[in-house]
Every structure is written in structure tokens, then in C-alpha cells.
Design goal:
The protein is α+β, with helices and mostly antiparallel strands. The chain folds into three domains: 31-48 and 283-366, conserved putative lor/sdh protein from methanococcus maripaludis s2 fold, CATH 2.40.420.20; 51-60 and 193-282, Efflux pump adaptor protein, beta barrel domain (Elongation Factor Tu (Ef-tu), domain 3, Beta Barrel); 68-189, OB fold (Dihydrolipoamide Acetyltransferase, E2P). Helices cover 23% and strands 36% of the residues. It has helices at residues 2-27, 100-125, 131-156, 204-212; strands at 36-42, 44-48, 51-66, 72-77, 84-85, 90-95, 159-161, 166-168, 178-179, 188-203, 222-227, 236-243, 253-260, 272-278, 283-288, 294-296, 299-305, 311-322, 325-329, 338-340, 353-357. A hairpin with a 2-residue loop joins strand 18 (311-322) and strand 19 (325-329). The radius of gyration is 39 Å and the shape is elongated. The two termini are 75 Å apart.
Length: 379
């Protein structure tokens, strides 16, 4: 019986020890009178132009698929893949000699059908033929006229030109290839690259924030653009010129388009781009480190030290990054309010804490002031 009580005592001691260890890991060492030390920093106020950073892609302002109007054999290619071309430049020459007989036949059919229709009109006035016969002659005439026009197109389509200026792509047809209107793939493509479009999306919340800040018309807003090689910089300047008329139901985003000058033609479509959309109206907001913000489902919050030196949970609206800190707004906060910036998982509203002054950017406690010099030191 005595060994049973000893075993029970050991189990209870182990449980109490585990509970003590768990509380020490979970809540950390306590300060005086059991209060938890927390690093706090004052909120900063700043006036800035709000901006929103998104990802996008460069796309051409115009793109032409070069296709033959009629069938023929590629006899010459007049461009080097990737070169810049002007509108009207010749890209391909087709050998259409195999279609000469077809041209002559179409012309003869047109002449015969035209003469038959004209005779029919004269005969109809004399009531020598029926109206149905005249309509049949007219249909044959129109069909022959269309065939004759097509034959004329064959003669002029021996040379295929680009309708726009830009950069020509890869030649999909080689010398000697038979091509025609029914070919599935275009002979090549030409993209107009000056200016380029920058296509990107913003979510519903960002759009509503823009509208709430008085930005009813998004067109004309300056847009800074950075490429993959630019690191965190945005050296290129574009202008917002277009937006969709509805949010995508699938993604909940609105498609925007900015126009980016590209006079040198060095930028090409498809490049990844980082986009910073800046608003012209300045805004004043409080700044806090992202580490000081907690998340509760869709809400963002932080802990403010109230007049009783206890943490108080405050729900905030978050904005863009400003000089490394997050812009926030809340009617319950003002500049200088102390907020907890480290160890939010250990904090509960109303608990006893010992605020330790810290730095908002580094989240570390500030160095304590040097102790006062002893009386008579250095005498």
C-alpha cells in the first residue's frame, strides 16, 4: 500500500513539473510581481503618397499575325528573325505561277457571266425570259465577279507585307513551303513595342481603398515599373491608361493597364514586371512594424499599452509600406501611443505586463541609460 502512495506522489510531481515547464516556455520569465516583460515602441505619424505594389507582365500595344491571302509557295524570306521592321516592309514572296491558269479561267468565266446577265436584262424587257431566269443569270454573274476579284488578289499577294511597325518574330514557314489561307499557323508575327503595355491586377480591397481616398478616376495615375534585374527599384515610368469594367468573379481582381514608353525597342513582351501604383493625394497615417500586427481571420490588430499599463487589443486597417514600416489607421490610436512589437503570441488583453522601451524597426529593447556617476568620482 505504501508503494502505491509513493507512485501516486511521483505521478503528481511529474505533472506539476511539466505544467511549470510548459508555462515557462509559453509565457516566458516573469518580471516583478509576476508581470510579463514586453518590448513596446511608440507609433510614428507620417504624411506620404500611398502606393500599392503588384506584379504584372509586359504586352505589345498591337500584334499582327502575318497570313497569306491565297495559296502559294514561299520563294523568299526578306527579314531576319527578331529585327525591327516598318509598316509596309516586305516579309515574304510567294511563287504563284501554278495559279496562272486559275486566274485566266476566272477572268473568262467573269466575262461570259457578265455578257449573259446583260443579255438577260434586255430579253426580260421584251418578256422573252422569265424573272427566275434573269435572277439565275444575275447570281452566276455575281459569283464570277467574286472569283475574278479573288484571282486579282492572287496576283497581288505574291508579296506579303507587314501592316504595322515593330519587331518581327520567328519565321514559321521555310523556303519551298506551300502556304495558304487555310494554314493553321501564321507565317510570322509582328509586335508593336513602342509603347508597351504593362498589365496587372489589383484586388477588390485595394480598389475600394482607392475610391474611398477620392481617386474616382484611375486613369492618368503615375505608375513606377521595375524589372527582374532592378532588384527593389522602380526605374521606369509609366502612366495608367486603362482598366476593365468589372471585377473577375473567379479571382476577385480588377485588370489594369499602364502605358510604358519603349523608344529603343529593347524591352519585349512577356517580361515580368513589378508595378508600384502611387496616388497623387498625400495621406497621413500611423506607422508600425509588421511584426506588431496580429491576424484574427480577416481582421488585423495590435496591442496598445493603455493608461492602466495593460495590453489593449485594437483593430486596425492596414495600408502600404512606407520606409520599411506599415501604414495603419484606427480611431483608437494616435501618434506616440505605445504598442507591443514583439511576442504577440504570449499576450492577452488585460494581463499584467512590464513595458520595456524598444525600437520600432529593430524590435529590440533600447540600451539602458548609463548609471549616474558616483558622488566625488574623479576628485
Amino acid at each position: 500500500m505504501r508503494w502505491g502512495w509513493i507512485l501516486v506522489g511521483l505521478v503528481v510531481a511529474a505533472a506539476l513539473g511539466g505544467l511549470w515547464y510548459f508555462n515557462r516556455i509559453q509565457w516566458g520569465p516573469r518580471g516583478p510581481m509576476g508581470a510579463l516583460p514586453v518590448v513596446v515602441a511608440p507609433l510614428e505619424a507620417s504624411t506620404f503618397n500611398p502606393h500599392y505594389t503588384q506584379s504584372g507582365r509586359l504586352s505589345p500595344k498591337a500584334e499582327a499575325e502575318i497570313r497569306p491571302a491565297v495559296a502559294g509557295i514561299v520563294s523568299k524570306i526578306h527579314f531576319t528573325e527578331g529585327q525591327l521592321v516598318e509598316a509596309g516592309d516586305v516579309l515574304f514572296t510567294l511563287d504563284i505561277r501554278a495559279y496562272g491558269a486559275a486566274n485566266q479561267q476566272a477572268a473568262a468565266q467573269f466575262t461570259q457571266a457578265k455578257a449573259a446577265y446583260e443579255r438577260g436584262q434586255a430579253l426580260r424587257t421584251q418578256d422573252a425570259i422569265s424573272q427566275a431566269d434573269l435572277e439565275a443569270r444575275r447570281a452566276a454573274y455575281l459569283a464570277a465577279a467574286a472569283g475574278s476579284r479573288d484571282a486579282g488578289v492572287v496576283g497581288t499577294s505574291a508579296v506579303i507585307k507587314t501592316p504595322i511597325a515593330g519587331r518581327v518574330g520567328r519565321a514559321e514557314a521555310t523556303l519551298g513551303a506551300v502556304v495558304g489561307p487555310q494554314s493553321g499557323m501564321p507565317l510570322t508575327t509582328v509586335q508593336q513595342l513602342d509603347p508597351l503595355y504593362v498589365d496587372f491586377d489589383i484586388d477588390e480591397q485595394t480598389y475600394l481603398q482607392l475610391v474611398e481616398r477620392g481617386q474616382t478616376s484611375l486613369r492618368g495615375i503615375p505608375v513606377a515599373v521595375g524589372l527582374a534585374s532592378d532588384g527593389t527599384d522602380f526605374p521606369l515610368n509609366a502612366t495608367l491608361t486603362g482598366l476593365d469594367n468589372r471585377l473577375s468573379e473567379g479571382t476577385g481582381t480588377l485588370s489594369l493597364r499602364a502605358t510604358l514608353p519603349n523608344p529603343s525597342g529593347t524591352l519585349i513582351s512577356g517580361l515580368f514586371a513589378r508595378v508600384k501604383l502611387s496616388l497623387p493625394q498625400p495621406q497621413t497615417a500611423l506607422l508600425v512594424n509588421d511584426a506588431a500586427l496580429g491576424t484574427d481571420q480577416t481582421l488585423r490588430f495590435l496591442y496598445k499599452i493603455n493608461a492602466s499599463e495593460q495590453p489593449e487589443r485594437v483593430v486596425v486597417t492596414v495600408g502600404s509600406m512606407v520606409n520599411g514600416l506599415r501604414a495603419i489607421t484606427s480611431d483608437a490610436l494616435k501618434a506616440g501611443d505605445r504598442v507591443i512589437v514583439n511576442g504577440l503570441m504570449r499576450i492577452r488583453p488585460g494581463m499584467e505586463v512590464t513595458p520595456v522601451p524598444g525600437d520600432m524597426r529593430t524590435l529590440q529593447p533600447l540600451a539602458p541609460p548609463p548609471p549616474p556617476a558616483a558622488a566625488g568620482a574623479g576628485a
